[in-house]
Amino acid sequence: MAHTFKYQTTGRSRLPRPFIPLTLRHKDRTVKIKALVDSGADFCMFDGELTRLLDIDLTKLEKINVTGVTGAAIGYVAHIEIGVEGQFFPTPAIFSFDYSPDEFGGLAGQLGFFDTYIVEFNRKAMNVVLK
What is the per-residue pLDDT for 103? Predict the structure, then answer.
């Protein structure tokens, strides 16, 4: 089943980008966020504040260093489920308090997300399709 999402603007940016609604699930806790579908991101990465809402114990997680266009950050690897329109899949995800995106919750990256979906970006039509 294909999922089609219109590009959106968020925060201070006026540039429409492929943001999609995701649900993050850890055990019996869920949180809904807006995530940027980012083919340049190696991992799914989310704001560290979300670990509190998901009741994830950081002391039990692997701590790693990650780098990207915004610089270096300390991240924590958690095994969660990500949901797109009610369909969930398990994936490792990185949570970082050094990464606080402007008015959205994170990145849907290569490991986990692009492994699960065929992702088609259509800038001309201003939509992203997940198959």
Answer: 74
CA distance 106 to 108: 7
Using alpha carbons, select from 84, 72, 70 the residue that is nearest to residue 35: 84
CA nearest to 127, candidates 16, 41, 23: 16
- The CATH number of whichever domain residue 45 belongs to comes to 2.40.70.10
Separation in Å, CA 130 to CA 30, 38, 69, 77, 110: 22, 13, 25, 25, 13
Range of the domain at 32: 3-130
Pairing label, strands 45-47, 19-26: unpaired
Q: How far apart (Å, rounded) are the C-alpha atoms in residues 7 and 50?
A: 24
Q: How far apart are CA 69 and CA 89, in angstroms?
A: 27
Mean pLDDT by runs of 10 across the 131 residues of the chain is 94 91 98 96 95 96 87 93 97 91 87 96 98 97
Residue found by looking up tokens 């990256």 in the block: 109
In a 3-state reduction of DSSP, which class is residue 88? strand
